[in-house]
Design brief:
Largest sheet: 7 strands, mixed
Distance between the termini: 64 Å
CATH class of the largest domain: Alpha Beta
CATH architecture of the largest domain: 3-Layer(aba) Sandwich
Helix content: 25-40%
Number of helices: 13
Shape: globular
Bound molecules: pyridoxal-5'-phosphate
Radius of gyration: 22 Å
Length: 354
């Protein structure tokens, strides 16, 4: 049913990938005169004059231990955004193929499709923010290459039912991408343990959220070795900088600290849910498996502007389908969350007076 070779673009199937100096020589040596680097060094005390490992093996081995996934099943991108874009470039013929998203969802699936001139089909979520499998099925044709599922979903904050994702994985012969950017804030099981069962599964995770490293830009794709080989074929040779590789490697030693932050953020999220629910202007706080809340207020634009006057920026999602009147609010520090609640209390007070 799933045939990777047939799913690939013909030009990628035939592609002879770029072979870097670091690919061609892998052994031990004292004198490296093969990559046209600056042999004298760099202006930085910490030298960065050498090209980094194109396959980031040290980072992958450290991740492998944490995730329980062999390194050959891991691809690292310059943010998840690179992991997303490369799938279009490898699998979707511009002007011909299509993909399916389940909105409201993360915007990059659609933007990246448009950049690559790939048609976007939309199976809007049901009112409970779950997959509309009936609609989804009607959208699939022989040119449908990818179905994007974000779980926990941004901006709705809920997890998608596991059984529904399994139905898609079992019945769709193209790629099924499960974006788990927020999985660490959820009690649900990741799909990365299911790779052996599903040759069409790609799981995306990121260092940008729970790991607190959005500034470094490191996204992860977990998939079959065959899909990872495709990723490696089309990526830029040195897509992850030496600085990022070193810093991520150091961060991966600190799982204890990261788990503490995750627990703290989840506790503060639940406190924020309670505090928000007490405010008269809040109509609904949706359940969250992420580090943000989707909150329905009366006039989202007005509340957004009001908070901005107090120097507080949230995300106005009121123009997004199924999110009418909604703001998306990231869980902040204890102090930031209190400032938010205080500001919203005065908004209510102002309303009552006027
Ligand atoms: C934040 C986020 C990402 C992370 O993207 P990076 O490029 O890794 O920073 C990926 N997917 C979703 C759904 C997100 O909300």
């Amino acid at each position: 049913m799933f045939q990777l070779d047939q799913l690939l673009r013909e030009n990628i199937r035939q592609l002879v990938p770029y072979s870097s100096a670091r690919d061609e020589f892998k052994g031990e040596a004292q004198v490296f005169l093969d990559a046209n680097e600056n042999s004298l060094g760099s202006p930085l005390t910490r030298w960065y004059n050498r090209y980094p490992d194109p396959h980031q093996w040290k980072v992958k081995e450290a991740l492998s231990k944490i995730k329980g996934i062999p390194p050959q099943h891991i691809f690292l991108g310059n943010g998840s955004d690179e992991c997303i874009d490369l799938l279009y470039r490898a699998f979707c013929n511009p002007g011909k193929d299509n993909i399916i998203i389940n909105p409201p969802t993360y915007g990059m699936y659609e933007v990246s499709a448009h950049i690559n001139d790939v048609e976007v089909r939309r199976a809007v979520l049901l009112d409970d923010f779950q997959l509309d499998l009936v609609h989804l099925e009607t959208l699939v044709d022989e040119n449908t290459k990818i179905i994007w599922i974000c779980s926990p979903n941004n901006p709705t904050a809920n997890s998608i039912n596991r059984q529904d994702i399994e139905i898609v994985l079992n019945n769709f012969p193209g790629l099924v991408v499960v974006d788990e950017a927020y999985i660490n804030f959820s009690r649900h099981r990741s799909f990365i343990q299911e790779l052996a069962d599903y040759p069409n599964l790609v799981v995306l995770q990121t260092m940008s959220k729970a790991w607190g490293l959005a500034g470094l830009r490191l996204g992860m794709a977990f998939a079959s070795e065959a899909i990872i080989e495709v990723y490696n074929k089309v990526k830029a040779p040195y897509n992850i900088s030496q600085a990022t590789q070193e810093l991520v490697l150091a961060a991966l030693e600190e799982t204890g600290q990261v788990n503490d932050m995750i627990r703290a953020l989840v506790t503060m999220r639940e406190q924020l849910v309670q505090d928000l629910a007490l405010l008269p202007l809040v109509r609904k706080v949706y359940p969250s498996d992420a580090n943000f809340l989707l909150v329905k207020v009366g006039d989202a634009r007005a509340v957004y502007q009001y908070l901005l006057q107090d120097g507080i920026v949230v995300r106005d999602r009121s123009k997004v389908e199924l999110c009418e009147g909604c703001l998306r609010i990231t869980v902040g520090t204890e102090k930031e969350n209190q400032e938010l609640i205080q500001a919203l209390r005065t908004y209510d007070a102002g309303r009552i007076v006027s």
